[in-house]
Amino acid sequence: MMSISGYKTGYVAIVGRPNVGKSTLLNHLIKQKISITSRKAQTTRFRIHGILTDAHSQFIFVDTPGFQRRYRSQLNQLMNRVVQQSMQDVDVILFVVEAGRFGHEDELVLEQLPNNIPVILVINKTDFLTDKLQLLPFMQKMANLFDFATIVPVSALQNKQLSDLTAAIRNHLPENPPFFTEDEITDRSERFLAAELLREKVFRQIGEEVPYSVSVMIEQFTQEGNLYRIHACILVERENQKAIIIGKQGKKLKDMATQARKDMEALFGSKVYLEVWVKVRSGWADDAVALKSLGYE
Ligand SMILES: Nc1nc2c(ncn2[C@@H]2O[C@H](COP(=O)(O)OP(=O)(O)OP(=O)(O)O)[C@@H](O)[C@H]2O)c(=O)[nH]1
Fold it and tell me: Is 22 helix (H, G, I), strand (E, B) or coil?
């Protein structure tokens, strides 16, 4: 039975091989970088990437461990099960592919899709097609591979058909009041966001090797005119993780810091001087400091 409001809220995972446009899609769906301030966010099993709230629905986009893998090796049955387990609490999965392209890497992701949760096939980058009729045989082929809830062609980059996609997602969300209020999803502080942006880069770069044991601490955050001076520290649990993050001749760390700095500059509308260190954390006392610096008590 419909509730009076008919409001729908649920968790949505976006999966797909690298470079199909998952981040672009998410960013264009939510239109802004947000930060979750609610404690509720910590109690869910997922890292929340973003939330889209409208008059009728709230979409909570989450990250699913396992799908972050870079698909370097063939995943075995066990891995499949682990990933499927991690998906059990989402309401809808968006499986993103590129228009007209379905290769081995896509197949590896497809193999991991659970069959008890609706999966929407998102065919992205339709702007590459000169003739939209080219889509039909591709859609046909894809429909034969998996029992998709529905298929939605979009161009994330050009914001095309994104409202068709949100309507399709909404069809599969349960009726719930919004889980997060406006207050809980507005920016906490620039300091907090700075930590989030850097952490996001760490996960993107090394999601496979160093899972959820990494935290980011902002040790100094000062503003001098049009310049933000930020000293950040990436805390890891073991020496070998530190080496992985730093990378050969410091290249990985440098790349992450550069990307984070650019994002910070865009977000703060200001020049940013960012220094990043990596430290091995020595015990729970450090954790307490780290949590405090992130604004969690
Ligand atoms: N032409 C076109 N390009 C797109 C579209 N969506 C994304 N791209 C481009 O595709 C590239 C990859 O996009 P991302 O959003 O980083 O892809 P991703 O799936 O998040 O990649 P990973 O983080 O490596 O998993 C970028 O250069 C985007 O600009 C689209 O609809 N049309």
Answer: helix
